[in-house]
Amino acid sequence: MAEKVMPFDQAIEKFDPAIGLEVHVELGTKTKMFCGCSTEFGAAPNTHVCPVCLGLPGALPALNEIGVESAIRIGLALNCQIATWCRFARKNYFYPDMPKNFQTSQYDEPICFEGYLDVDIDTDEGRKTFRIEIERAHMEEDTGKNSHMGGATGRIHGADYSLVDYNRAGIPLIEIVTKPIVGTGKYAPEVAKAYVAALRDILRNLGVSDVKMEQGSLRCDVNLSLRDSPESELGTRSETKNVNSLRSVERAVRYEITRQAARLTDGLRVVQETRHWHEDTGVTTSGRSKEGAEDYRYFPEPDLLPIAPDRAWVEKLRSELPENPAIRRARLAAHWGISDFDMQSLVNSGALDLVEDSIAAGVDAAAARKWWTGELARLANEQEIDLAQLPITHQHLADLEQLITDGSLNDKLARQVIEGVLAGEGSVAQVVAGRGLAVVSDDGPLLAAIDEALAADPSIAEKIQSGKLAAAGAVVGSVMKATRGQADAARVRALLFERLGVSE
Amino acid sequence: MTNLITLNAADLAEKLATKEISAVEAATAHLDRIDAVDGAVHAFLHVDREGALASAKAVDTRRAAGEDLPTLAGVPLGLKDILATKGLPTTCGSKILEGWKPPYDATVVSKLRQAGIVILGKTNMDEFAMGSSTEHSAFGTTHNPWDLTRIPGGSGGGSSACLAAFEAPLAIGSDTGGSIRQPASVTGTVGVKPTYGGVSRYGVVALASSLDQVGPCARTVLDTALLHSVIAGHDPMDSTSINSPVPDVIAAAKLGDIKGMKIGVVKEISGDGFQAGVKQRFDEAVNILESLGADVVEVSCPNFPYALAAYYLILPSECSSNLAKFDGIRFGLRAGDDGNHSVEQVMSITRAAGFGDEVIRRIILGTYALSAGYYDAYYGQAQKVRTLIAQDFAKAFSQVDVLISPTAPTTAFKIGEKLDDPLAMYLNDVATIPLNLAGLPGMSLPIGLAPEDGLPVGLQIMAPAMADDRLYNVGAALERALLNHWGASLLSQAPELTGA
């Protein structure tokens, strides 16, 4: 049953929202956090398991050092402090997807704490930066996955039986928790989305995770509460689980604001509970109540040694961090003289790194963008492969551009060169030679072809002379055809007008 | 032919090495002995006759081929049922694991196999190592070979009894609060709890992770050292395993020279409330140590009286979490799965059906101690006491080389005598628990029979971390002197066992 909601604008008028975001990131390590099992996604159920990640009696965890390194790099990228000494803790609760019936996690001693991430969004007053305070980023292990069979809903209630796949159990997770995000008002939904988007960019840029929200390698829980005014105490929050797309983060925040506002306005309490997000209907529904606060009986994990990251190592990791993607984009946009919009489409097309590398290889900035987002993107799309998988090197593009600048190739010929390179016909020079591709630079043959075209249809000359310059296209086309595309179209046009005594 | 079952491991190994006897003969002699007396003793939960003979045969084949084999190759051993054995039942003395066959070997088991040691079977224990008598085993009590109406100690009563009953010359135990040392004490055998981290815990079903340690059991100090050197060493599968060289325990066990050594008698665990005969034999042992040239002084460890209380908070806390995995989902017993119960109910019914009273008692204690609002008062305070006890030891070891005490306050008590009184049962470990809390090594060795009941008394030697060799040096010196005094091993005075 749908709950009552209050229109968003009205809700924001009456209440001040506070958001808390908990993001779980599955690290892209080859092996699990505490054993040598593969983390590969999509394997047959229960094939990536061993005594450790199945929690068999007697098995013990052994820490994955790459997991710790990734956690520290994430913390550094989020401007966090890195603990000088910290421990794992056991979070005790019974659930069939958890082999040991406790999760090895961190409690009051997280490896990273007190960081922040700045996000920019467009507001009525222009572009504005919101600083999201990060409380902690800690290490833990993922659980297995339950499948409830035979029921109508796929949920446990009504199912005939359940199956558990432990392939995911023990995959390293980093949980990144914000402090309550306040002061965003009506921009709360957009700020939440922008934060998750920025976080995803940073994580991808660090290379620590494939951050695929649809595959669950990046999962977001949205906490939301309302209060009467920014001066009031924070209200009771709901915790909406598994909001697994950027758009859903925005929608879930928006929905919870409208739902809680309706309740509070009607004199009802907001119940502290877990809620489920429904992508299809865009609403949340009540899950398990947390009022009887679950007691996880945390205590330090005695099977693992405390972690005391060497300071020199931390500083080395800091010095090797890639540039923050937002800062990098701003820098490149300014350097290349392109707009935010163009930069965004470059990012969306996945061509930013390629363009940057091509420019470094000597290709002109505009040309590099043109090739990677134009012809090359089209070819990659046609072959259903990633842009980076095209067997085109930055040197190829640099060589090609050189020939275009020299005037020895035009765009059309250049595309044929690309085609030849992709077909394995060799280097740019080899394709040009092999296919005999070169702009006809001698005016003689061009004038002959122009005359031939004008003679074939005398009306064209009249049209052009009477001012209909567009008619020139037909002549240029004929000349290109006659020269098998090896003419410089601009030169043909110029010669044509000269011959007819017309100026452009 | 010599009576193979009464030979010490070192002597047996010698005869095997010179091919005077074969490993199959050694294994057969012990398996036959088990057949003859284990009906009365019940040291074994599972005897692997086939597997034992196969590994004995493999040793003989390799030896016949001229291979240079490890010292103990072909020597039989009883393995506490708390260590995972691939394809062999591993129950921890609990119904909840009845029928479970692990898909893997514990690291210690792999080491034993690599050393050519012949595993005869799995020995009885209190359920999940909780107890001091084996009376908490779900599969029946083990009987003390000295007096079958008495307990063999616990939790590792099966391992100590199989040594005392000459069913095996070697055994493996695990010691969380005294489960190797107290059984050794009451059966007239030798047992060592190594330094925490000295022996891998991988594949050892956890009771309390921060206290558990696997160790060697045998009838002589040298045999114990030989086994110690097989199982000790760093294991990357156990994060708490110490990555440094194993102390040369064999050399120490052969040395036995304590001239000029300083030995401390721990005041707090060496007198009050202990049985008179225990106290008497202990005092005599102190005199012997002095006569061997040691300087024996009294040392005070003022926080030891709090050890038992701290232990019974830390242990239940850790075990409440360690034993959560026994839920009927992936292995072992499953009860209540009749289509009418939810998964939570099946877990609950399984646990209620599979765990015995003592296990349930400790899970409840630990769950309570870790609960919100109680953690600081119980678990937190207990950890502070633990630190104080470690400091007591550190201070004591700045004054003396080793510490000693009686291992247990009494000799073996009657089966059933303390079963209904958990506190009385817990007090058996009053002298052994401090070492576990501090992670230090200790040995129990026999020092005679209590005059009032004619039952064995044990002496405990305690050493600093990774100074396990000191235990063997002191133990060897004392053992040699006592053997000279007795004229024969203490166990030769034990009554003859007949089949039951």
Give a description of the structure.
The complex is a heterodimer of chains A (504) and B (500). Chain A has 504 residues and is of the alpha+beta class. Chain A folds into 3 domains: 8-313, no CATH class; 329-435, no CATH class; 443-500, Arc Repressor Mutant, subunit A, CATH 1.10.10. In chain A, 38% of the residues lie in helices and 19% in strands. In chain A, α3 (188-206) packs antiparallel against α4 (246-265). The relative contact order of chain A is 0.10. Chain B is of the alpha/beta class and 500 residues long. Chain B contains 16 helices and 11 strands. In chain B, α9 links the parallel β7 (262-266) and β8. In chain B, α2 runs antiparallel to α3 and α10 crosses α13 (376-397). The mean pLDDT of chain B is 96. Chains A and B meet through loops of A and α10 and α11 of B.
List keywords for this structure.
heterodimer; A: 504 residues; alpha+beta; Arc Repressor Mutant, subunit A; 3 domains; nine-stranded mixed beta sheet; three-stranded antiparallel beta sheet; 14 strands; 38% helix; elongated; B: 500 residues; alpha/beta; Amidase signature (AS) enzymes; eleven-stranded mixed beta sheet; 12% strand; globular
Quick structural summary:
The complex is a heterodimer of chains A (504) and B (500). Chain A is α+β, with helices and mostly antiparallel strands. Chain A is 38% helix and 19% strand.
* General form of chain B: globular
Give the class of chain A from helix and strand content and strand pairing: alpha+beta
Write down the overall mean pLDDT of chain B: 96
CATH architecture label name of the domain at 4-256 and 441-493 in chain B: Alpha-Beta Complex
Give the biggest sheet of chain A. 9 strands, mixed
Largest interface: A-B, 31 and 44 residues
If strands are numbered along the chain, what order do they take across the biggest sheet of chain B?
1-3-2-4-6-5-10-11-9-7-8
Coarse structural class of chain B: alpha/beta
Separate helix tally of chain B: 16
Q: From the alpha-carbon coordinates, what is the Rg of chain A to the nearest angstrom? A: 31 Å
Low-confidence stretches of chain A: none
Largest sheet of chain B: 11 strands, mixed
Distance between the termini of chain A: 70 Å
CATH class wording of the domain at 4-256 and 441-493 in chain B:
Alpha Beta
Give the % helix of chain A: 25-40%
Rg estimate of chain B, integer Å:
21 Å
Strand content of chain B: 5-15%
> At the third CATH level, what is the topology name of the domain at 4-256 and 441-493 in chain B?
Amidase signature (AS) enzymes
Order of helices and strands of chain B: HHEHEHEHEHEEHHEHEHHHHEHHEEH
